[in-house]
Amino acid sequence: MREKAADRAQSGVSPYLVGVMAWVVPGLGHLWLGRRQKGLIFLVALVGMFACGLWLRGRIFPFQLAEPLVALMAFADLGMGLPYLIAKTLGVAGGEVVAITYDYGNAFIIVAGLLNMLVVLDAFDIALGRK
Amino acid sequence: MTTHLGLMIVFALFVSVVFAVLMRDDLRDQLRLFGRLFAGFVAGGIAIGWLLYPLPF
């Protein structure tokens, strides 16, 4: 595994590019670096968690700097990359405040975004040869 | 499925999987850590729920 990462690092792939790929599609950074098992699990688990959040009528929060907590939640949501943009584009990100599962859905969406940020950092470290 | 306990278990499942795969490289170690995290999240959630139960708010 370490050799694969070192090979990728030496092949001139920028760790920043790997980080961007990992952010856009959860797990893609690890897949690109040859860590297929990890990449596939991240892809399925994080996209599944995000989809569960939407199914539970959770909301993708808008950036409202006047409301610091809402802005923080919006920042966490943004961690999901492409699924976030697709949900926004399809108009399924509005949530339903009166739904009994609304808060659960928000928790799923927010935590999926935060976990993907950790996955991005992990892919970045691997690309640098630190792991 | 959409009970509080059911959703807590699904949530714990997702989070445990991601943390286990993130923190361990070997499959056996990943499974072991997943089991520990999942059991800890579920048991901890139930325990905290029971502790909070008598509170009036």
What are the salient characteristics of this protein?
heterodimer; A: 131 residues; mainly alpha; elongated; B: 57 residues; 2 helices; 81% helix
Task: Return Rg of chain B in Å.
Answer: 14 Å
Total helices of chain A: the number is 7
Order of helices and strands of chain B: HH
Please describe the biggest sheet of chain A, giving its number of strands, its sense, and whether it closes into a barrel. none
Structural class of chain B: mainly alpha
What is the 3D shape of chain A?
elongated
Helix content of chain B: over 70%
How much helix is in the residues of chain A?
55-70%
Write the layout of secondary structure elements.
The complex is a heterodimer of chains A (131) and B (57).
Chain A: H1 2-10, H2 15-24, H3 28-32, H4 36-55, H5 68-78, H6 82-90, H7 102-128
Helix pairs in contact in A: 2-7, 4-7, 5-7
Chain B: H1 4-23, H2 27-52
Task: Provide structural commentary.
- The complex is a heterodimer of chains A (131) and B (57).
- Chain A is mainly α and 131 residues long.
- Chain A contains 7 helices and no strands.
- Chain A has helices spanning 2-10, 15-24, 28-32, 36-55, 68-78, 82-90, 102-128.
- In chain A, helix 2 (15-24) runs antiparallel to helix 7, helix 4 packs antiparallel against helix 7 (102-128) and helix 5 packs across helix 7.
- Chain A is elongated.
- Chain B is an all-alpha fold and 57 residues long.
- In chain B, 81% of the residues lie in helices and 0% in strands.
- The interface between A and B is medium-sized, with 22 and 12 residues.
What's the quick description here?
Chain A is mostly helical and 131 residues long. In chain A, 44% of the residues are buried.
